[in-house]
């Protein structure tokens, strides 16, 4: 479900409506200056003309053009915020048009407008990982991979050389990878710090190793939040600080249980 948003046409329409609004604004300003000198009563809010004149006509035209402008503006805003197709989706769309040729030759240039494409599918925070896994599956194309990641319906839809995988199964694999990564980032530093404080003699090397461990895993959790989520910078900073604080508190509790031996 990939379509064009016609960004160039939107820009032309918006610029056209802006120009029309500016012309009406200019006409109203000139009328205001003329009335300020000749009939200042017309500029008062309580003044109601008995018959519609030039000012009323200009205000009606201004309202009509402004409503047209806001309609186009809101439509353009909605299309701009719509999800863009991922590289794999666009590639599949382009290959489908080239292989199946469902469009006439006059409509084929639309497939080259990559920056102008939008999709009705909800965008995923880690779509790049989906693409990477899909490319890896194509490299490892075999019957086992096809049976696992291609449903019966997906296989029936594929007639040409292109291979398509069931999106829900790839998303399940991606969710599993992210879950395992999060668990590893939570368990591994605790395991390492626990054994370091027990097995190694307390000294400057142990302190440096524990600090390095906290630093490396804090950096890893910040990188994962940056790549796999849509968290903002201050949210990543807060999560990394909380993660590092948990490691420091754990390290302090371990040192209390296993105090530094007397020389």
How would you describe this structure to a colleague?
There is one protein chain. The protein has a two-stranded antiparallel ribbon. The chain is built from nine helices and two strands; from the N terminus they run E-H-H-H-E-H-H-H-H-H-H. With 263 residues, it is mainly alpha-helical. 7% of the residues are buried.
Give a quick rundown of the structure:
The protein has 263 residues and is mainly α. It has helices at residues 7-38, 54-80, 87-100, 127-139, 143-149, 152-157, 167-199, 204-228, 233-257, and strands spanning 2-4, 117-119. It is flat.
Number of strands: 2
Q: First CA to last CA: what distance?
A: 72 Å
Global geometry: flat
Name the structural class.
mainly alpha
Task: Report the average pLDDT across residues.
Answer: 78
Radius of gyration: 32 Å
Number of helices: 9
Order of helices and strands: EHHHEHHHHHH
Q: Tell me the helix content.
A: 55-70%
């Amino acid at each position: 479900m990939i379509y064009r948003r016609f960004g160039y046409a939107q820009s032309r329409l918006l610029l056209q409506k802006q120009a029309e609004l500016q012309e009406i604004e200019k006409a109203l300003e000139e009328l205001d200056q003329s009335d300020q000198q000749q009939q200042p009563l017309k500029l008062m809010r309580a003044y109601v003309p008995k018959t519609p004149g030039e000012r009323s006509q200009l205000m009606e035209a201004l309202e009509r053009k402004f409503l047209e402008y806001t309609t186009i503006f809101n439509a353009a805003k909605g299309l701009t915020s719509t999800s863009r197709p991922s590289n794999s989706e666009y590639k599949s769309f382009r290959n489908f048009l080239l292989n199946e040729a469902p469009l006439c030759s006059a409509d084929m240039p639309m497939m080259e407008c990559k920056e102008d494409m939008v999709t009705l599918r909800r965008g995923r925070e880690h779509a790049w990982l989906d693409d990477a896994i899909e490319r890896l599956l194509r490299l490892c194309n075999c019957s086992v991979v096809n049976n696992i990641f291609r449903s019966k319906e997906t296989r029936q839809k594929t007639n040409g050389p292109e291979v398509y995988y069931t999106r829900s199964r790839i998303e399940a694999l991606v969710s599993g990878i992210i879950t395992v990564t999060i668990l590893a980032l939570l368990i591994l530093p605790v395991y390492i710090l626990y054994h370091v404080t027990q097995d190694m003699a307390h000294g400057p090397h142990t302190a440096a190793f524990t600090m390095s461990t906290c630093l490396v895993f804090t950096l890893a959790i910040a990188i994962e939040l940056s790549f796999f989520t849509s968290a903002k910078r201050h949210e990543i900073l807060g999560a990394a600080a909380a993660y590092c604080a948990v490691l420091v508190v754990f390290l302090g509790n371990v040192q209390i249980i296993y105090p530094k031996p007397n020389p």
